[in-house]
Amino acid sequence: MNTILEFRNVSFSYGKTKIIDDFSLAVEEKSFTTLLGPSGCGKTTLFRLASGFIVPEDGDILIRGKSQKGIAPNKRNIACVFQDYALFPHMTVEKNIMYGFKLHAGNKELFKYKLEQNLRLLGLTGLEKRYPHQLSGGQQQRVALARCLIMEPEILLMDEPLSSLDAKLRSQLREELKELQQNVGITTLYVTHDQEEAMSLSDTIAVIDHGKLLQTGTGTELYYKPASRKVADFTGSANYFGSTMVRNEWFTLDKNSGTEYKGTLVSKAFTGKTTRLKIKSPEASHGVFCADIDSRRAADLQTGTEVKLYAENSVSI
């Protein structure tokens, strides 16, 4: 695959505060790449740098190997979906979608064809005369996406577009978004602090903290082979026993299934299929560790008693 977007040794500060620090990342053509990290780590700043709304103080942004210095946002063939969708409240769905396209073309028949194509693609057919306030959150997100796709950009940038939706709708739209990206084949750079979102959507995840790139890889690579404790914590629940890391779900009650860990059961939290156990143990680096156990198996465990669990997998870190 070919690199289409590249951050090359990029740094950026707000006043005296360094936000992005010598950041380098290559985004492959037609890939879904996610910037993952906690709030305030610099993800949105990278989004704004790639789109051209702000410029690096050091380093460079390249598209297809060409420096973007001095190139305005509207000249970059990049489309952006923002966290609040930025729909025009006084315009219908149809006019919102066609707004940018009408600025760049004048063929009415082409307008109609492209509109119908994107309404169908995003499941918005029949909603074209509605206004944003008459739409659900998921429908508004689709309108914002259709407004971008109709421009046929080379790169789609998305800044936490699902964060304001409820959990069930967010899960549904994640599936739709990944399927759409694969069908359209558009290079996507996605910003999120949600580990599950990043894992389910991405071909490549770039984990960021304090403006620095900590590790890149597939979700599987980052989950099973994190390069540091920070990466392990950003990509799932983790427990530490000295230099050994064990994910919550790697524990089992089955004897002889791996290394034994024991302690006093402090609390149980039923979450449906699994129950989260909080266990006080001198073996754990922080004095406690958590385990997600099949709820049927965990039902008979009593708080205040000693429990033994076995780690089926572990990672030295």
State the distance separating the first and last CA atoms.
Answer: 31 Å
Spatial strand sequence of the major β-sheet: 6-7-8-3-9-10
Element order, helices and strands?
A: EEEHEEEHHHEHEHEEHHEEEEEEHEE
* Average of per-residue pLDDT values: 91
**SSE class:** alpha+beta
Shape: globular
Q: Helix fraction?
A: 25-40%
**Count of alpha and pi helical runs:** 9
CA gyration radius, whole angstroms? 23 Å
Strand tally is 18
Walk me through what this model shows:
- Helices cover 28% and strands 34% of the residues.
- The chain is built from nine helices and 18 strands.
- The strands form four sheets. Strands 6-7-8-3-9-10 form a six-stranded mixed β-sheet, sandwiched between helices. A five-stranded antiparallel β-sheet has the order 13-17-14-15-16. A four-stranded antiparallel β-sheet has the order 2-1-4-5, covered by helices on one side.
- Strand 15 and strand 16 (288-294) form a beta hairpin.
- The longest helix is centred in the middle third of the chain and has 18 residues, at 167-184.
Keywords:
single chain; alpha+beta; 317 residues; 28% helix; 6-stranded mixed β-sheet
Write the SSE topology.
Layout: E1 3-14, E2 17-28, E3 32-36, H1 43-51, E4 58-63, E5 66-67, E6 78-81, H2 93-104, H3 108-121, H4 137-149, E7 155-159, H5 167-184, E8 187-192, H6 195-201, E9 204-209, E10 212-217, H7 219-224, H8 229-234, E11 238-241, E12 244-247, E13 251-252, E14 259-270, E15 274-280, E16 288-294, H9 295-298, E17 306-311, E18 315-316
Parallel strand pairs: 3-8, 3-9, 6-7, 7-8
Antiparallel strand pairs: 1-2, 1-4, 4-5, 9-10, 11-12, 12-18, 13-17, 14-15, 14-17, 15-16
